[in-house]
Design a protein that fits this description.
Elements (H helix, E strand, L loop, with lengths): L1 H32 L10 E6 L11 E5 L4 E5 L10 E5 L2 E5 L2 E2 L2 E2 L3 E5 L4 E5 L10 E5 L2 E5 L11 E5 L4 E4 L11 E5 L2 E5 L11 E5 L4 E5 L10 E5 L2 E5 L10 E5 L4 E4 L11 E5 L2 E5 L11 E5 L5 E4 L10 E6 L1
């Protein structure tokens, strides 16, 4: 009987492993087959702005040339920014808010990678540290954050053509350290911290209906995570549920379901993430002991994380986005 039970448990374990492997294969098969949300023409790079690190890190800018597998230093930001957010529209990269010393910022600067020039943009309607940002429909969205007195449920949209900010309806939940992404004409916001702890809640803004809808909660609470739109699905990676995590999950808008992703090699709270071609990159963050300098990449073909060339400094809560080289 003991031998039969051992055989049964071994078979059950194999079925569970095969089921998980099958799920991951279906996830990444869908990733390869579905159309991309955003296409940038020409060479692209991953840009990293400021963040916590060394004494010179808060104003430092680095760019990863993915094809060349090289990092380079770029002109520094006009002012130091930690916990800022970044988004790219056209040939400009916008860096929003953050904190400088004890000051929570409402200022915005934009950077032109082609000329290496920085210039100021009209201030946001609120001061926002630990905010999230993303780009969609040729606009930049600033989401939630902390203004020095409390967490924010407010969101605003920048029209780069006019330079004007428009206030949007309030989210259902106050959030700092949330993750945001633009997917299929909708703004998704996941997780964050409402002042009582990390959140697993997710909501979606429909710009045509001008309202926020609550979506199924994530499998895990996450504050300081990163979000990406990947082939028609929302990916939320890393963050903290009280301790930094190395997990990620994928939301399918059609099925309204969450599916787990392969685990990163190290936990990352306050990480950055970017999608280039068929690969997801994660970088920086805090593992609970040290700030991370490492970079990991997961491709659709491999469906696992592998180490990639690292930048010059360790940092967390930097502003990260993809832009033209």
């Amino acid at each position: 009987e003991a031998k039969k039970e051992a055989v049964r448990q071994k078979a059950a374990g194999a079925l569970t492993a095969n089921s998980r492997l099958g799920t991951l294969r279906r996830v990444f098969a869908g990733w390869r087959d579905m159309p991309k949300e955003v296409e940038l023409s020409g060479a692209v790079g991953i840009y990293v702005f400021g963040g916590f690190g060394g004494p010179r890190t808060p104003s430092q800018v680095e760019r990863l040339n993915v094809a060349g597998r090289t990092w380079e230093l770029l002109p520094r930001m006009p002012r130091e920014r930690c916990t800022a957010a970044a988004a790219c529209v056209g040939s400009w990269i916008y860096v929003l808010g953050g904190i400088c010393g004890r000051e929570h910022l409402d200022s915005v600067d934009r950077f032109n990678p082609g000329t290496g020039r920085w210039e100021p943009v009209r201030e946001m309607g609120e001061r926002r540290g630990y905010l999230a940002a993303t780009a969609g429909e040729n606009a930049v969205f600033a989401v939630g954050g902390f203004n020095g007195a409390g967490r924010l449920s407010s969101t605003e949209r920048l029209d780069p053509a006019t330079g004007g900010w428009t206030r949007l309806p309030l989210m259902n939940t106050r959030r700092q350290c949330a993750a945001a992404a633009w997917l299929s004409g909708r703004l998704y916001v996941a997780g964050g911290d409402d002042g009582r702890g990390s959140l697993d809640s997710v909501e979606l803004y429909n710009p045509h209906a001008e309202r926020w809808d609550v979506l199924p909660s994530m499998r895990q609470k996450r504050s300081g995570a990163a979000a990406l739109a990947v082939r028609g699905c929302l990916y939320v990676i890393g963050g903290s549920d009280g301790e930094p995590v190395n997990t990620g999950e994928q939301f399918d808008p059609e099925g309204q379901t969450w599916t787990g992703l392969p685990e990163m090699k190290v936990p990352r709270d306050g990480l950055g993430a970017a999608l280039v071609s068929d690969s997801i990159f994660v970088l920086g963050g805090h593992d609970g002991v040290l700030r991370q300098r490492s970079v990991e990449r997961m491709s659709a073909q491999a469906a696992r994380w592998e180490e990639f060339v690292a930048p010059t400094v360790s940092r967390n809560f930097a502003a990260v986005t993809v832009g033209p080289c």
